[in-house]
Queue: 3 jobs
Job 1
Amino acid sequence: MKIKKIIAPGETIIYEPKLSKIAYLNLGRLIRNLTTTIFVSDKRFFHSHGWVHRHAHEIVIGKVESILVEQGLCGRLFNYGTIRVSGTGAGTIVLQYIKRPLEFQRQVRAIQGAGTAPNS
């Protein structure tokens, strides 16, 4: 899915997390990854996946409650991991095989700290 079709007028993309190359080693995961869109804007965190049956989930940046980064030994060596983003009243979004997961966490916290995110 093209990001230009998703963003609202006046919304600015701040960060686009990338998937680790390790995520492409499995055919099923390859198809899922090719149909995945992830971005962080000045207003929200967005994740969608699926080709036949699309799943889309977003959390307003001001409502992001926690960002959990999980990295095993291979993840630490090759700098990828699983990210769990929890939002107030929005549930949890799980992203697997994300490159530089701590950078994702830093980017979201920087947006929140800059006060550009709405609190409602």
Job 2
Amino acid sequence: MIRRATIFAVLLLLAAAPAARAQTHFSTNAPIVNFRLPTFTPDGHREWLVRGSEARFANQDQVDINELTLSIFRGDDSDKVETMILAPNARVMPSESVVTGENTIRVINDEFEVTGVNWSYEHKQKRVTVAQKVHVTFRAELKDYLK
């Protein structure tokens, strides 16, 4: 009796499946809310973490993000964040490990803070380029600077 009930339930689910699929809609334009994209070193340590309040996939290798928070890790056992990048909007190219933005950026590190406009971050070179309205604040002690 249990077997018949199980077979009947499976047949009922299979019959309902096409109707459920007909109502399901997928769209590449739909935003992903609370987006997170981590990357890892070959050893399995965190390398960087891209987060945003909303993300849209423009194509296979381009993600447009609102309210970007990019955490760049040391890539070792410490799992310590080395640098943070904040921006209202950004474009991430994961396969190239590049992030760009036309609006403002704020780069925060233990030694300095940078703000500006029209920027890019190349992770392989660990290089941030800020083209306009650049403001740098050093937190590190500058010894013998005036000598």
Job 3
Amino acid sequence: MSGVLWRYLAREIFSSTLLVLMAFLGLFAFFDFINELEDIGKQGYELHQALIFILMTLPSRVYELMPIAVLIGTLYALTTLARHSEITVMRASGLSNQAIMRALAGIGLVFAVLTFVFGEYIAPPAERAAQQWKLVATNSTVSQQLRSGLWVKDGPRFINVRSLLPDRSMERVRIFEFDAQHEMVSVSEAVSGRYDRQFGGWRLSEVIQTRFAEDHTLVEHLPEIAWRSELTPEVLSVLMVAPERMSVAALYAYIRHLQENRQSTERFEIALWKKLVYPLAALVMMALALPFAFMHDRMGAVSVKVFFGIMLGIGFHLLNGLFSNLGVINAWPPLMAAITPALLFLLAAGGLLYVVERR
């Protein structure tokens, strides 16, 4: 394909995809605003704070919606070109189907890179900042599932944190330490804890430390103690951001922590593989839209095909979430749970293209 045709095709697809993406972002922002209305007025949470929170979550929405926008935008662009017989003219002038596929693959690769950049470098810090913003605005702490707070295993220790603050400092910390025979050695209770990056660990303030010996118990009151741990603020940030919205590096670090403490990692491994596989969904969506370029008007108006594309996009989004949950419930291999939806849609694209070519 010549450079002029490639640029023309890319311009049509990019402009259509951008238009679709902006429309979806506006729609989802409206839904998020409706959801935030329940919290406005509670604990000092105001309207402008809710709007800022929604704006800060938009990068995560871009990452989630990119493959769907690529599918609908590409489908619309190609269907419009086919309706105006431009695809027919291109093919009649000697442009092969393989050349069109290579052109779409090149365009899809750009979308895949954009999806990866948003998912790895833009959305995670924006999502974390959004959650911190809302916690500060509502004067809240990170919610926990247990009334006693957060429980984390760290080697021979069990740590209980009653409150994790938005700045990722801790309040009311208890550390239970055990020996190799699983007997309790000590209990340390601190009023607060803050991570010191220069030291590479936590500094706990106003500590009451109880040590258990064979024939006596020793209680000490200490103004501060230093505690080195693999539990960094980045690891604890998993409590503020859903695994699917974390970066690959943060997921990998947390998975290593769970493995070293012999805890379940399936959910986070599936999320990690999804983060690696999800950008390739843009290429799958381009392949799924390609058959519509060769259908002309035999399947109806452009609006019908766009509606069909919307249904396919929603189906992919739902299937992606379904297989993630099924993978955790049934202990499937993480890679299989992450890649199966994309493979199913790729097979569907190949089947549609085969049927169109046979006609």
